[in-house]
Structure formats: structure tokens, C-alpha cells
Amino acid sequence: MHVEHLLGDASLGLRLLWAEDALMRREISGVTVTDLEDPARFVRPGEVVLSGLVWWSPDGGSGKAERFVSALKDAGAAALLAGEETHGSVPDDLVEACVRHRVPVAGVPAHIMFRSITDTVYLRQWGGLSRHHALPENTRVRLSRLLAQEAGPDAVLAAAFAHLGGTAAYVFTASGRTVAATAGAAAVPAREAVALVADGSGVTASVDTAGVSAYERRLLYLPDPDGAPPSMLHEVAAALARCQEAGARRPSAGSRAADELGALLAAPGEREDAAVEAALRRCGLPETGPYRAIVADAAIRPPEVPQPGVGEVLPAEGALAEVAAHLVEAGGPAEAESAGGTGEGEGEGASAVAVAVGRLPDGCAFAVLAGGVADGWADEAWQLVADCAPGVVLHGGMGVPAAEPEGLGGALAQARYALTSARSTAPGASRLIDAGSLTTLDSLLTGVPADVRAAYSHRVLGPLLESDRPGIAALLSTLETFLACDGSWARTAQELHLHVNTVHYRMERVERLTGRDLSRLRDRLDLWAALMCR
Known about the structure:
Layout: H1 3-7, E1 15-18, H2 21-24, E2 30-33, E3 47-51, H3 61-75, E4 79-83, H4 92-101, E5 105-108, H5 114-126, H6 129-132, H7 137-148, H8 153-161, E6 170-173, E7 178-181, H9 190-199, E8 203-207, E9 218-222, H10 230-249, H11 253-266, H12 273-282, E10 291-300, E11 313-314, H13 317-330, E12 354-359, E13 365-370, H14 377-386, E14 392-398, H15 408-425, E15 431-434, H16 441-445, H17 450-461, H18 470-484, H19 489-496, H20 500-514, H21 521-532
Parallel strand pairs: 2-3, 3-4, 4-5, 14-15
Antiparallel strand pairs: 1-5, 6-7, 6-9, 8-9, 10-11, 10-13, 10-14, 12-13
Helix pairs in contact: 3-4, 7-8, 8-10, 11-12, 13-14, 17-21, 18-19, 18-20, 19-20
């Protein structure tokens, strides 16, 4: 259906206010009804936009009209149909803005319901009243029964689209993980799924579930824009939201068991192997490794604070559970089930990677994964999940693999150390650091808490940190260059454009002020570490 077909429908009585012939021949992809002053997020290319103009007012009208129409133009809207009931007519400011941005505009008489226009478009697009209506009654009844039985999203999606034959449909998380798909739908890699949804070439409906974080948000996606009418998609999305809400409301024994496992592993001192093995069993994890431990925290950085530092600390379990779910899916088929709060019975096969996600006593989210993790996939999954909430800094640390349960306490300690390193090296960016990557002295020191680093630096360097004294500042600079030149007097003199005797004199003063002997490797390492700890 083209714009000219809609505007030429005599039964609607639309009043054309401005258009060009080329724009009139543009194909209509759908209809969006909105009274938001900035509707760009909800308008897809080729859609006709219906607005009652509630957002417009005479004061500042031209500015509001300009912003509204500019948003439509940027979103690729096919035309604007403006209701005349609110203001008695379509404001001139709005028409003029449409002319400037070359967006066809028509008035909708007060007696014409917007529903009549959407019906006209979708009846023409989908070819009949039976398909235009939302779900058939028997499908609706089937979905109600499934939801009452606490069925998973795979069953809900299959039942919702059964009457449409081979229509491909997916439920994606915001990070691109496939939660459910109709039979025969091709597998979609996570990064590709994110790109497809962002591209807007298919049809997407948000699964608006109450109480979930941005990391757990879900989307219903159809690759074929003509695969089903939007009214049906919204009803299916609502059923999927109820499915997710029911899962969130159910008490999770797995989550409680995961918290208990975390408390056991984080406790100081020796742990009995039998106690760890029992805790793993309660989480549904195998008693043999390999295991990986991951910890995470999330924080909002106030935009008015430019220097490193974070604002309100947020629960990170949702983010870590989504990362863990990506890693579970990447593990491949196996006999063991996913466990500990990430599974919903989703998918037909179990996974080679099982996982428990919970919270440590200090509030950090943690996960224990049993099974192999593909090289590099943890970083990939971390970034996909972090991108779901751009305003949140998501830090994480991962321990090296532990072969047996008795090594899990150490693996968790390594993960927490790596988390501190992530906070230190990337305070304003989301990052996951593997403890196995801390292979140099400077990288190792990033995991030492900031106040400990500061205390060590102050104790070792002492008077050399009095940078307000020019002579002392020169000594510190010379020390840095001397150590960077591997203790070579000649190279240090060359780098600083000094005489070698001057370098010797300054290093002697450094030795007196710090009590260190620069001829000894151990003392040089102490000073080098102190410099890095600043």
C-alpha cells in the first residue's frame, strides 16, 4: 500500500495539506500512533504516523513542531496524519515544518477514529479481516493454559505462531541471546541479532516485563515485516512478558543455593571438600571441574563528575546471569543442565556448561561455571551485555580454571582480585579482566586496592613525593628514567640531557631519602613498584 492509496480512500476523508508526487508513491510499512513530542524511538522506516497533536501548544509551537517533524524525517516516516480534534485544525507551524523536511502531511477530521485508518492499512497489507485481527480465539485459549502451567517461552512462542505456518519468529534478549525461536528458524549469532534489531528491517515488539533490569529485557523479532500484523505481535509480546514475570516471581531454590555456595567459598580459612561438593550439588553443578569463577559489580557514574569514580552501586546479578547464559549456550550440547538461577527450561538441549549465579556476602554478584568456556567468548559476551545499559559501568573479574572443587575458593579470590584490577584500569568503562592475564608486575599491581597502593607508594618513596619542591621533583623524574633505562647511567644521562656525574649525584640523594640501595635488584624493584602504585 502506498501513501497515495491511503490518502485517496474516500471513506476516511483525509485532507491532504502538503505532499510531492514522488513522496505519494512511497510504500507504507505500517502505522504508529503517538503523541510524544519526540517520537523517533518508536517510528520505523516507511510507517505512517498518526498523532492527535496533544503535544503541541501555541506557546513554543514552532519549536515543538520542528522537533517533532525532524524526528519523523530522521526515522524515515512515510507520512504524518494529524488529528484535527484537539486544536480544531492542523497548526500552520506543523504544516510548514513538514514542507521544510519533505514529510507528506494530511489532516484527520475529528469524526474519523484513528482505528479506522490502522484497519485500512493492515487490511490491505495482510489481505483479510481474519488475519488482521490479533490472535485467533483458540490460540489465545491455548496461551492462557500454557501460562497457567508456567510454560517456558519456547512453548509460548510455538503456540502463538502455529496458525501462521512457517513464519520465523524469535525472542532475543537485549544482548542478542536467543531465548526462543519457532521451529525451523535459522540460528542467529548474538552480535548479528543485536544488529538485526537495530537495523529495523524486520519487525520488533518489546516484551515489557515489570521489574527486570535492562540486561534482562527481551524483544520479539520477526525477520519478515509481513510475517504477522503488529496487533498480533503486541499480544504475543504481552504473553511472553507474563511468562517472564511468572518466572521472576517464583522462589528460586537455585538462587538461594548459589548464595550459600558463595558464602562458603568467600569465607576465610580452610573449607572442607565435602562441604563444597555438597554446595555444588545443591546448585545443580557437577562435582568435577573444570570450574571458572566470575564476580561483577555495576555502578552509575554521575555525568557531572568527570574524574574517575562511580556513583550509586547497582545489583549486577541480572547482567552476570545474562553473561553466564551466553557462556552456557556457547558450551554446546551435553547431558548436564544449566543451574542456579539462569535457566528457565529454555531451548531443547542441555548445555556442556552449567552455571550458578548468586550474590556474595559483600554484595558483589558472582557466578560459578562448570565446563569449558570458549576462548575469547567471555569478553565478547561481556561487551554485548554491557552495551544494554550504556549509562552503567559494568566491571568483572574471572579466575583461572580450577580443576577440582577444592580449588574454587582460590578461583573466587582470583576473580575478586581481577575485579579490583578492572575497576582500577578502566574506572569509566565496562570491562572484564581474566586473572590469567595479570602476567606483569604493573598489571598485577592493578588488583591491589587503591588505598593499599597509595600507602605503599608513600611509605617507600617518602620525601620524593613532595612534588611542590623543584629539587625533589627532579629527583623523582631522574629515578623514573633511571629505572626505565634498566639502571644504565649513560642512557639515563642521555635521556635527560645531563652529565653522568649529575645522574650519580641525584641517585645518591634518592638512596639517602628512601633508604634503598640502587645497586641491589630487590631495592630497585621496590622503588619501581612504588612508582607504579602512585
